[in-house]
Amino acid sequence: MCGSRCLGPMTFSVDLTGQHVTLSQEGQLASRETSSSMNGLAFLSRTVKVDEKLCIRIEDRTSLWDGALRVGFTNICPQRNSLPPASIPDLGNTRGYCVVPVPEDLCRCGVQLQFWINYAGGTLIVLVWGSRRLLLLLFA
User: Fold this and answer.
1) Domain spans, the chain
2) SS (H, E, C) 104-132
3) What PANTHER family does the database record attribute to this sequence (predicted)?
4) What is the mean pLDDT of the chain?
5) Between vectors from CA 47 to CA 19 and to CA 77, what angle results, nearest 5°?
6) Are 103 and 114 in contact, with CB atoms under 8 Å apart?
7) CB-based contacts of 118: which residues, under 8 Å, 6+ apart?
8) Positive or negative, the Cα torsion across 102, 70, 91, 140?
9) Tens digits of residue pLDDT in 17-68
């Protein structure tokens, strides 16, 4: 349940999606074409706060591609005209971006994933919680 400090549901940005991404349900559902593994990036519509918990539910998936969902955070404001075709390696190797793959066994239909960022001693920690499993991903 959303408390008094709740910022409301997070939505995807209409202006910051790859050409193979379609948004629906007032920006709360992102779908992608399966014709290509490229141009499937979707950014959120607002800044994520440190320790703000985000929850996503996997509604559907395809077996056409190796790999699964990637979650990323950045301190750089993305620009529509410069969205790269892929998060890895394009954003994963770019200063100011942190992109982590979510293990495929967590990306099953109906699974809810919760993720958030935290800082500890100058280290960025990305936490992913799903299927009673917590992953800590550290970035210097």
Assistant:
1) 12-127
2) HHHCCCCCEEEEEEEEECCEEEEEEEECC
3) E3 UBIQUITIN-PROTEIN LIGASE NEURL3, NEURALIZED
4) 81
5) 60
6) no
7) 50, 51, 124, 125, 127
8) negative
9) 999 999 999 999 999 888 888 898 999 998 888 888 888 888 888 777 666 7
Measured CA to CA, the distance from residue 140 to residue 124 in angstroms comes to 6
CA distance 95 to 76: 9
The structure tokens listed for 115 are 């993720």
For residue 96, report the phi and psi dihedrals to the nearest 5 degrees: 95, -5
Task: Report the amino acid identity of residue 119.
Answer: Y
Cα–Cα distance measured from residue 63 to residue 131, given in angstroms and rounded to the nearest whole number: 20
Q: Residue 42 CB: number of other CB atoms within 10 A? A: 18
CATH 2.60.120.920 corresponds to the domain 12-127: yes
Non-local CB neighbours of 20 within 8 Å, separated by 6+ positions: 32, 33, 35, 36, 38, 39, 40
Tokens linked to 52? 């703000």
What span, in angstroms and rounded, lies between the C-alpha atoms of 116 and 125? 8
